């Protein structure tokens, strides 16, 4: 094919002409199988069954994504650096890469690829369009699954090394339109995506559901940002086993989900069983800034958490913030060398739905080590929506006279975790940064710096992990150490695309 075409492209079905394609019924699937420019810079035709077949390149430019556009099995969609794709609100636009399909979206620090709202600057809200979904052939613990959010696509297989392409230097903004009640698409949804896929330098901002959600698979990620999402920053489920390093999660104190919002939320599977493979991601060098880390006057009530001028009025319900880390339902999440500031609850390790998640922590299958926790109202809780540091062995009955398992575990885990009552003790440059160019790095003399050999655990003895000597996502506040420079945007509401 020719590179540099101005995508878009409306194509004839099989043996009929372009003219007849334009008059096809809504029931027909419209397939992109020729390089025909249609109606300027549009991707899709507004239907929910628009298919891209074959290999196609979107040349650098600005495009409107309409409806649900599928990159089908055996097809590759390449997006050139510097491209902006604006999602159409009326058609709940979404881009879905199906099993066997690939997306090659390789931006650069100076020319990131941007998926954003088609609404005018100043009027954008979470959920203005659908989002980006990638489905692969890697392993999950449910076999073949249909992807969350409404699209038709299945994910799952037996190849943990499966390759769904490249996402590098990409921003995803204002995604998450609800397909139906409580069926939002996440900012970036990864279903059984394999480790052959490259994902790095991704910023998801103002998602109307989770910023990142991983359903099974083994894809690894570096340099990822969840910025002011509605629900959880990083959600891991269904046997996900990838490695992740250098991540930032920042909350808008006025936005939280009815299901309660967290930095990490991790389940093995919804019913709490120990189906294999068990969810076991490995996180290192993450920085989580909760609502108290953004506004000292924050209160965890509906009168305060009202969405502000970002409330989308699309059926999404507001709720409360809960924990920096919620680990439950048999998950074996592992997190090292990370910092969490300003969540109502620090850590929750819960035996939901008959699971024995706490026993995994006791046995060492679940590990939280060298974590720095600051400014939490309570250190730990064992029961969802209790906000009490009290013991529960079943996430239902609470023994108020006994400290929670979660708190006791966090305080004693290898004697490596640290608790501060105030966020300022961390020495982060801007701990309350409602700014367009924030800095979440440690200042000179911060307790997060110069920590020596902190990659001694077997799970971190992998070539994927950079063996650094600091806690959290950033080495220092120097520009040379700020991997966010150039490609990120912390004020997408007012950007002109």
Number of domains: 1
The tally of strands reads: 29
Distance between the termini: 28 Å
Question: Which segments are poorly predicted (pLDDT under 50) over 5 or more consecutive residues?
Answer: 1-28, 32-39
- What amount of the residues lies in strands? 25-35%
CATH class: Mainly Beta
Summarize the structure.
The protein is mostly beta strands. It has helices at residues 18-22, 357-363, 405-412; strands at residues 31-32, 42-43, 50-52, 55-58, 62-65, 68-71, 76-79, 84-87, 94-97, 102-106, 113-117, 131-135, 145-146, 154-155, 165-173, 188-191, 198-205, 212-215, 221-227, 234-237, 243-250, 264-266, 282-289, 323-328, 334-341, 345-350, 367-374, 378-381, 418-420. Strand 13 and strand 14 form a beta hairpin.
Description:
Helices cover 4% and strands 28% of the residues. The protein is mainly β and 497 residues long. It has a 15-stranded parallel sheet that branches. The protein has a twelve-stranded parallel sheet with strand order 1-3-6-9-12-16-18-20-22-24-26-28. The chain has a two-stranded antiparallel ribbon with strand order 13-14. It is globular, with a radius of gyration of 22 Å.
